[in-house]
Amino acid sequence: ASRSPSGGPLLTPSQSLDGAGGRRSGDITIGYRGSYTIGREAQADAKFRRVARITVCGKTALAKEVFGETLNESRDPDRPPERYTARYYLKFNFLEQAFDRLSEAGFRMAACSSTGTCAFAPEQGGPADDKIWTSYTEYVFCRD
After folding, report:
1. Alpha carbon distance 14, 107 (integer Å)
2. Using an 8 Å Cβ cutoff, are 24 and 15 in contact?
3. pTM confidence score
4. Chain centroid, CA 40 distance in Å
5. Cβ neighbours of 71 (radius 10 Å)
6. Strand pairing class (71-72; 84-90)
7. SS (H, E, C) the chain
8. What is the Cα–Cα distance from 59 to 85, expressed in whole angstroms?
9. Residue-wise pLDDT tens digits, 86-144
10. Which residues are in the KCTD8/12/16 H1 domain (predicted)?
């Protein structure tokens, strides 16, 4: 193994350690699809559906460190720890719970992005007064 000038092991960027407990730096992206209905004249009481699934994208080792047993790995079960995956999802459906776990593990939100489209409009045979919208949202968290 290579050594740094200080005599310690030489680490690649993906293996870098921070000064607070030796945790790996890296990024984790949380994503979810949602839908909501807005009635006539964009009423303030839009009906939101619950989040069906929270997806996790990042290095396998980081995802397992943060989410532990709540990480569902069934779609990519044998992924090596230092490889990226976008196929994991969480066993719970509360974004706040995911954000809390990331915060407790030393991650901070670096970016977010959301899209929304009208999925079902009256002229396409949908409900006369309602429009059903779908959205996809991603939150990028990083730890230096």
Report:
1. 15
2. yes
3. 0.72
4. 33
5. 16
6. antiparallel
7. CCECCCCCECCCHHHCECCCCCCECEEEEEEEEEEEEECCCCCCCCEECCCCCEEEEEEHHHHHHHHHHHEECCCCCCCCCCCEEEEEEECCCCHHHHHHHHHHCCCEEEEEEEEEEEEECHHHCCCCCCEEEEEEEEEEEEEC
8. 6
9. 999 999 999 999 999 999 999 999 999 999 888 665 565 555 556 778 889 999 999 99
10. 26-143
Q: Which residue has the tokens 């396409």?
A: 124
The residue behind tokens 């954000």 is 99
Q: Which two tokens stand for residue 83?
A: 């490889």
| Single-letter amino acid code for the residue at 92 | F
Residues 6+ apart with CB under 8 A from 58: 26, 27, 28, 29, 84, 85
Place of tokens 């460190």: 65
What is the total residue count of the chain?
A: 144
